[in-house]
Here is the input.
Amino acid sequence: MEGGGRPSAAQAVLLAASTALTALLYSVYRQKARVARGLEGARRVRLDADLRAVLLEAPGRCVPYAVIEGVVRSVKETLSSQFVENCKGVIQRLTLQEHKMVWNRTTHLWNDYEKIIHQRTNTAPFDLVPQEEGASVTVRVMKPLDAAELSLETVYEKFHPSVQSFTDVIGHYISGERPKGIQETEQMLKVGTALTGVGELVLDNATIKLQPPKQGMPYYLSAMDFDSLLQKQESNVRFWKILTVVFGFATCAVLFFILRKQYQHHRERQHLKQMQDEFRQAQERLMREMNAEGGETLKNACIICLSNTKACVFLECGHVCSCNECYWALPEPKKCPICRQAITRVVPLYNS
Here is the structure.
């Protein structure tokens, strides 16, 4: 606390930071909870011969947020893996990732650092079809790369360590960066993969399409079944809720600490004011009693103890107001009780 009872700058910054962080966590928690509630309320439809009839009966031939499960099948051509034979898919993602060690000047430690230096994603049109053979109904998947959760399987992964000479090692230590190598990865959504799609299901002419929803809800193409996907989102909500509660309690603790300090300071000020009032009343009462005994005695009394006779002259101000005992009891540096001027010397006063 500062002198005026106000919170210190550090306390104010701590309270503001904890409040802002709690508000941010609460905002994330509410967004996650909204997503989980929307996912829980999504309409589950079966990929069978009745799907077209369901969409024809729906308003606008559309189910705004639907859950459908099926198997990936390419529409025309498929994508072949560059590294694995007989591996066919409809989405292919090739990634080159650099791995190196970077010197942290603050902690004086080498930290791992990863950076994607190149990534290319190839797609081919594909449908979701029932797992049963011979079914005629299909659902065309639109904009699969917009999905919030797109399950791609890693089919190839290889790390190419960097070759360094002694001169390179010395140079890397001086520059603060030590290359470790390049990691090459290929991920694919393979033909025949079972997918759970969550999005807008619409009947466009003769084609049934699954596309990103328009209400701001997330679009999913996950290899997990719907119950597992919902459970994952609910676990995510619980995590953010616990985090929000913890930081909320921390903010309340900081606020309680600051208010407690202010209350204690207020009590101390009240107690000091009460003591000053009691002292002033006692002094006034004593002066009235001494006036009743005789004005002359009060006139010559020490203004500090009001009992002994004035016995010294303070210089350079010239005030005669104190006895010897009270003069020596004055705190250093000694100042005149009347004008608060510094006392340079004292001359004894002799009353005849």
